Amino acid sequence: MGRSLRVERSQSVPAVPGAAGQGVVARLVTVAASTSAAVASEESSPELLNAAVMCGTVAPLALPPIREVQVHAVVVKVKIRDRETAQRRLREEIVPRVSQSPGFVTGHWAWKDDSGIAMVVFDSEGEATAMSERVPGMIVEQEVTLEDVEVREIVANA
């Protein structure tokens, strides 16, 4: 008895006509056989995916267009004087205020010993620059000393 395949798409990108070997790259699909399950993707199990395409169980999917976006980060370095007070203020005031700023994408604040660093990512260089100009006004000298503020372009992430 032949094995039946059930195919589920993990992304909602439109199927395109074509057969294996015509330069159409398949995006991640889950192929579940009646007795076992396997994952076929660009990186693994091309034979399983080709078999599913050839028997007409699944059509190859077109890769969505890659969109290049240039985001920028504000990098802030501080020396911590009062760790407990600085942490409380960071959580109660700084993080909520920064995360509501125009163009905010994500932010990370870290420390080691008496050194603190923040990397806050924004949609554009202009929004990052505007935030970098507001940073000195957020500093309370009894808690931290501002050592450096700069805007950098994000070139990769994972």
Question: Gist?
Answer:
The protein is an alpha+beta fold.
Describe what this molecule looks like in 3D.
The chain is α+β, with helices and mostly antiparallel strands and 158 residues long. The protein folds into two domains: 5-54, no CATH class; 72-153, Alpha-Beta Plaits, CATH 3.30.70.100. The protein has helices at residues 46-54, 83-99, 125-138; strands spanning 5-9, 29-33, 37-40, 72-80, 104-112, 115-122, 144-153. A hairpin with a 2-residue loop joins β5 (104-112) and β6. It starts with a strand and ends in a 5-residue tail after the last strand. Mean pLDDT is 74; it is low at 1-44. The protein has three helices and seven strands. The strands form two sheets. A four-stranded antiparallel sheet has the order 5-6-4-7, with helices on one face. Strands 1-2-3 form a three-stranded antiparallel sheet, with helices on one face.
Task: Supply the key terms.
158 residues; alpha+beta; Alpha-Beta Plaits; 2 domains; four-stranded antiparallel sheet; three-stranded antiparallel sheet; 3 helices; 32% strand
Radius of gyration: 25 Å
Characterize the main sheet: 4 strands, antiparallel
Q: Please tell me the CATH architecture of the largest domain by its name.
A: 2-Layer Sandwich
Q: How many DSSP E strands?
A: 7
Shape: elongated
The CATH topology of the largest domain: Alpha-Beta Plaits
Question: What's the CATH C level of the largest domain?
Answer: Alpha Beta
**Helices and strands: which structural class?**
alpha+beta
Q: In whole angstroms, how far apart are the ends?
A: 44 Å
Beta fraction of the residues?
Answer: 25-35%
Strand order in space, largest sheet: 5-6-4-7
Number of domains: 2
Count up the helices.
3
Helix content: 25-40%
Give, in order, the helices and strands.
EEEHEHEEHE
Low-confidence stretches are 1-44
Mean pLDDT: 74
